[in-house]
Structures are given as structure tokens and as C-alpha cells.
Write a structure and sequence with these properties.
This protein has 3 helices and no strands. The chain has one domain. By secondary structure, the protein is mainly α.
Length: about 90
């Protein structure tokens, strides 16, 4: 019998999204500043994308929670990976 791993709680997905975006936004701010030379433009870009990408990440995580393991294994086989072994 194949055991299904526990699903991740919504709060955990949200916290992961927020902390990952903090890291990503720092990266975006630095790159935007280097490319534009303007700290105000970099702040505007970073300040906007932190919110849009948190929402996108959260939605992405929730969609992946609905995808059965068999579908993931099928996709992996398309690229030559062997399916996970059952315990």
C-alpha cells in the first residue's frame, strides 16, 4: 500500500511564500538598481513584485498540493527518471 505524504497546511505555504519573496525581492532590488542606476525605480519594482509574486507562489503551492504523486511520477518518466519506490 502506498502512503500519501501529509499535505502541507495553507499557513505553511503562505509563510514559505513570504520568506522566499523577501529573499527574491532583495535580489530584484539589487539587480534593478544595477540595471537602471536608480534606487527609486528599483524600490518601485521591488515593492510591486513582492506582492504579486507572493500571490503567485501561494497559488502555485496550492495547485501542486492537488497533483497526485502518480502524475508527478508520470511526468518524471517523460524525462527518463525512474518512479519513486514504494515503501
Amino acid at each position: 500500500m502506498k502512503l500519501t505524504p501529509p499535505r502541507e497546511p495553507r499557513l505553511r505555504s503562505a509563510i514559505k511564500g513570504i520568506t522566499w519573496r523577501m529573499i527574491g525581492t532583495i535580489d530584484t532590488l539589487i539587480l534593478s538598481w544595477l540595471f537602471t542606476g536608480s534606487l527609486s525605480i528599483a524600490a518601485a519594482i521591488g515593492g510591486t513584485e513582492i506582492f504579486t509574486k507572493i500571490i503567485l507562489f501561494y497559488g502555485h503551492e496550492r495547485i501542486w498540493q492537488r497533483i497526485p504523486d502518480d502524475a508527478v511520477n508520470w511526468f518524471g518518466r517523460l524525462f527518463g527518471q525512474k518512479p519513486d519506490k514504494e515503501s
